[in-house]
Write a structure and sequence with these properties.
- It is a single chain.
- The chain is an all-alpha fold.
- Helix content is 74%, strand content 0%.
- The longest helix is centred in the last third of the chain and has 50 residues.
- The radius of gyration is 18 Å and the shape is globular.
- The protein starts with a helix and ends with a helix.
Length: 192
């Protein structure tokens, strides 16, 4: 995808809307667009820096919003916390995972939309368990690790469903837009 002014504006709107949605009170746990954005950015955006900026800026903006809400007593969730950089590194990794989608079709998108949130769930819960201050202070044993994974299960369902839902919107919208642009270009060429 070649970036032009209208695509950049669309991406900025996507970042703002997804950030606002992520801080929406009472949304299902883990049901957010950022994993799908990382896959989409990696698979579709040719300019690699924009592929990373899309999900990471969305995460950062929503973390700023969480922090503002927290400081004003409107949320129990802090926007910034110790060990948070791990999430940003994991999301960068998910963008790399999107680079592996060489052919954009429903099978590859479905597979990536199931694998990426699963990898994120495993890695993020492992790092929460590993950290000295993270999670529910689970013991540093195999059983403690399993307890930590169990703690994250409510989020895992949301990660899967959210990634499937938002991937369908992002990749489906991209397909429809590129199809429309290709059809318009073909009609314009025929009329000249």
């Amino acid at each position: 995808m070649k970036l032009n002014k209208s695509i950049i504006v669309a991406f900025l709107l996507l970042i703002v809307i997804s950030s606002l949605y992520r801080v929406w009170e009472n949304r299902p746990w883990g049901f957010a667009p950022q994993i799908a954005m990382a896959l989409f950015g990696g698979a579709v955006i040719k300019d690699k820096k924009w592929a990373f900026i899309l999900p990471l800026l969305s995460m950062f903006l929503s973390d700023v919003l969480y922090e503002i809400l927290y400081l004003n007593g409107l949320s129990e969730l802090k926007g910034f916390y110790k060990g948070q950089i791990t999430n940003y590194i994991l999301f960068a990794g998910l963008t790399f995972f999107g680079f592996l989608i060489k052919k954009i079709n429903w099978v590859n998108i479905l597979a990536a939309s199931l694998i990426a949130p699963t990898l994120y769930f495993i890695a993020s819960n492992f790092f929460v368990w590993l950290s000295a201050t993270g999670g529910l202070q689970r013991p540093k044993t195999f059983n403690g690790l399993l307890m930590c994974f169990n703690d994250g299960l409510p989020f895992y369902k949301g990660y899967i469903l959210g990634t499937l839902f938002f991937s369908a919107i992002l990749f489906g919208g991209y397909y429809l837009i590129t199809r429309y642009v290709a059809k318009s270009t073909k009609l314009a060429a025929q009329n000249t």
